[in-house]
Amino acid sequence: MSRKIRTTKKNFKVFCEGDTEYRYIDEMRQLQKLSITLKPVNMKGGGYRNFLEQLKTDGTANCLAKFILIDGDRAVTDVSEKKNLQELIDYCALQNKSQRIPHFLIIDYPDFEYIACLHSPNFKGQNASQFIINELGYRSVDALKADQHIYNTLNTRNNSYKQMLSMLKRENCFLLNDYSIIKAKYDIKVSTTYDWGKLGKKGSNIYEFFEVIDCFSK
Question: Mapping DSSP to helix (H, G, I), strand (E, B) and coil, where does residue 80 land?
Fold first, then answer.
């Protein structure tokens, strides 16, 4: 009798800043039937240096690409964090240039709470904290962060990630990843550009994450 051949799924690793992003990605992983496994990693804050040190020691087995989701606000207000962000950018660029595991650095400015608000068609640039309470129905921003089903909450009624993607001001993106994909070969190539003059403008290149995931879900 012939042995059953085990196949190992390729995976995307997603390094998240905190609980909110982790829960969003993890629930997305559970609800969507993806041919590629999503493996969220909760970094529990710690700044850009924390991400850099984790990436340097993280394994690569069966990993197709790594997404690093961070908030850009601390680089605007803290000179040392701006330096740490530069080092993180340089590290990801080096990995991509060497054509090892692709590294997609995703920067939300000012933070993921702003991205959450963009899921609603009623968001027109209001104060994010007040919008989360008055329109999204949370008693506080902390309550949103503690929501175990944040992905489902932000993708029900008229709210959706597609609405969020349509509202992003891509011209404001501080950092962009130019990428090409050969799906049949599981081949992804990435090159990164950034403009310090745009840091501090509301925006995000998180659409790149959804585009790549969508490519492998078909």
Answer: helix
Which long-range contacts does 28-35 make (Cβ < 8 Å, 24+ apart)? 28/151, 31/151, 31/152, 32/217, 33/217, 34/213, 34/216, 34/217, 35/9, 35/216, 35/217
Q: State the residue for tokens 């702003």.
A: 114
Per the CB < 8 A criterion, the answer to whether 63 and 13 are in contact is yes
Angle between helix 47-57 and helix 79-97 axes, rounded to 10 deg: 30
In the predicted structure, residue 2 carries a pLDDT above the cut 70? no
Tokens of 190: 């990435």
Nearest to 175 by CA among 31, 71, 20: 71
Task: Give the H/E segment covering residue 49.
Answer: helix 47-57
- Is the separation of the CB atoms in 161 and 31 below 8 Å? no
Mean predicted confidence (pLDDT) in 114-138? 96
CA pair distance 152, 80, nearest whole angstrom: 36
* Beta sheet of 11-16, edge-to-edge order: 37-42, 11-16, 63-71, 103-109, 203-204
Between CA 120 and CA 136 the distance in angstroms is 8
- 8 Å CB contact between 139 and 133: yes
151 close to 27: Cβ distance less than 8 angstroms: yes
Residue 205: left if φ>0, alpha if ψ -120 to 50, beta else—which one?
alpha
- pTM (2 d.p.): 0.92
Q: Are 201 and 168 in contact (CB under 8 A)?
A: no
- The residue among 2 and 107 whose pLDDT is bigger is 107
